[in-house]
Amino acid sequence: MRSNQLSYPPERYNYTLIMKIIRFETKYTPPEYGWIYEDKVGRIQGDPFGEFRRFEPEFSLSQVKLLVPCQPSKILAVGRNFLEHAQEMNAPIPEVPLLFLKPPSALLPIGEAIILPPQSQQVEHEAELAVVIKKKSRWLQAEEVQDAIFGYTVANDVTARDLQQRDGQWTRAKGFDTFCPLGPWIETEFDPSDALITCRVNETLRQMASTRDMIFSIEQLVLYASSVMTLMPGDIILTGTPAGVGSLNDGDVVSIFIDGIGSLVNPVRSGEPFQIS
Predict the structure, then answer these.
(1) Is residue 17 over pLDDT 50?
(2) Contact status, residue 70 vs residue 183, Cβ threshold 8 Å
(3) Which run of H or of E encompasses 148?
(4) What are the domain boundaries of the chain?
(5) Spatial CA neighbour of 216 closest among 234, 197, 232, 192
(6) Where are the extended beta strands (E) located within 174-261?
């Protein structure tokens, strides 16, 4: 990596002014963090959640492969955080945030395929806003929440609905490999109070709602999660999905867009037949 410090533009040394953080690789470089300026990518040296240096943009965005934008120790998710989604599931409205976990092994970057597992006959999309945690946090107070948030990205909480209903608890239904597409980048300057979330499958609109329709706000979710467990830098909180969830089939393309962040697009493919070894 080159040793010169970024001087373009110099005020962007302050990470709170950096708008898009990515993880990427090229044919000639291993996975690393970077930042986007217009349609260019620059390297980041160090930890974007702590101390780091930025380098001048040297790659075209089209030259790099975007990876999952962070490496969380855990992925928390929130069930039934939109009234109409709870109603379409014929489920009661939670009195407190309904938390569950997805494994980091479920993460999938933009452009790669969601794999339909042979154990399920009903896999569905769930478009969601994802919160990225900035620092180690436990028992946060309301005035500390904003400082604990690094930024936001787009997520798809892919769910094997038939297994969710069959099992009663959600680990298997939510935990298959490729069941958490995330990206394309972390937007550090984003207002989550009233952002439009849409989901299209093969260009057909399936989901559309605003973050203002959430039952529990971003602040409430982060506060509540920090009262349960220690949140670590890079951890993800999926904040719930609007109504309109629907089935995914082999050959589909699912596109989730959040106004102010961007689009997360993934194809869908059938998995290999299940075999017991």
Answers:
(1) yes
(2) no
(3) helix 145-148
(4) 10-66, 75-270
(5) 192
(6) 180-187, 196-201, 204-210, 236-238, 253-258
Residue 141 and residue 133: Cα distance in Å, rounded?
15
Q: What is the pTM of this model?
A: 0.92
Type of residue found at 172: R
Pairing of strands 262-270, 114-116: parallel
Nearest Cα neighbor of 204 from 151, 246, 161 is: 246
Q: Is the pLDDT of residue 137 over 90?
A: yes
CA distance 35 to 56: 10
pLDDT at 15: 43
pLDDT in the model for residue 18: 63
Question: Is pLDDT above 90 for 197?
Answer: yes
Q: Which residue has the tokens 């993880």?
A: 23
Residues contacting residue 276 through CB under 8 Å, at least 6 positions apart: none
Q: Using alpha carbons only, what angle is made at residue 82 by residues 187 and 109, rounded to the nearest 5 degrees?
A: 35
What would the CATH number be for the domain defined by 75-270? Answer: 3.90.850.10
Between the alpha carbon of residue 181 and those of residues 19, 102, 131, 215, 218, the distances in Å are 21, 11, 14, 24, 20
Q: Tell me the mean pLDDT in the region 62-88.
A: 96
